[in-house]
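Working notes for the structural subgroup meeting. M.R. asked for a predicted model of this chain before we commit to crystallization trials. I am recording the input and output together here so anyone reviewing the notebook later can reproduce the run.

Input as submitted:
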Amino acid sequence: MLASTGFAIRKDISFQETRICRTTVQGRYLITDYTGYVCDALSLDPQSHCCRVKKERYSCHGCNLVSQCCNSYEYCVSCCLNPERTHIDQALTVKIAKPVTSGTYSSLFDYCAGRCRHNSESVVHENAYHSEFHHCFALPSNMSAGITDTQIEVRLIGINNLDRLLIQLTGVT
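Returned structure, recorded in token form:
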């Protein structure tokens, strides 16, 4: 999908208005645009701010699809933007913060950028991550009925540490 172009006044005299893509700004090297493409900063279109190189849309490179957690912020946002993975109607009802007065996300891009950046369930002791897969886009656990603390921990640990966790839980080596 290329930059959206809207026409002002008349199409035939080329007064084209280019819409600007919203992008992530967290990483040093990679950027995700709101259409779900990931590219390096040098591949952004200077006018539209969309990724010029359109390789794979909604890429989940470096993501654990079971836990819905990724080792890269940009790929977390891209994977989250896939409508088959994140349902917009549920995402837009999630509160941005815990206070009752907090608002909700206004777009799927805002939800994905926010959830992948901030996830209290992926930290332990407020200053360390459970695993390298700490950029998570899953719905908050209070929205997922019937999920226990152990299931949340398993979801966040990632595939690499699952065996160690099972040994801790069962006591069997």
